[in-house]
Amino acid sequence: MKKVLFVLTSHDKLGSTGEKTGFWIEEFAAPYYELADNGVLIDIASPLGGQPPIDPKSSDPSSATEDTKRFDKDSELQAKLSKTHKLADIKQADYDAVFYPGGHGPLWDLAEDKNSIALIEAFYNNKKPVAFVCHSPGALKNVKVAGEYLVKGKRVTGFSNTEEEAVGLTKVVPFLLEDALQSNGATYSKVGDWQPYAVEDGLLITGQNPASSKLVAEKLLQQLNTKK
Description:
The chain has 7 helices and 11 strands. The chain has 228 residues and is α/β, with parallel strands linked by helices.
């Protein structure tokens, strides 16, 4: 059986707004169920271990999807989520791929987390797929392979500047994801705000926004199934 690591943020403060952030439920639940329902084993890790913070806005009924409703009733997965492994204890050799759900949290912690950076580099250098959605491509900001940014010359997507503007957080986030990817040499593309869109460039798979999370998981599953 294939085994995938999910990496979630441990960061819960939305800049200096006094509001909470974390990971976005849809971007965790949709890929989790897509992979698990197809027989993939999944472990969950975060920088601090234990219960990772959930962005309260992603629990709002207006953000609900079939997958988030399933998650709300899934006491087994909720219990598993409350006991995430510490990122420092994880070894890429134990997994076939890594998946990073988004939410605003990763822009603060995973973008700078040395364990996360080293882990992504290790997966990529060992020819294992690395997948990201929405804000989580921010975790690639400081990732390098052979001395160059991993995203340099790669086709990628991620939460767009216009989407950040639409949620009113352009001046709150530590960096704008679209700009950061481009300044590291990526070929960034996007579709209309909130539309599903995922880009695959070799082992690197990225999705634009919450609506793209299942698409990313489907592409990841395809790669896992074609690997011996």
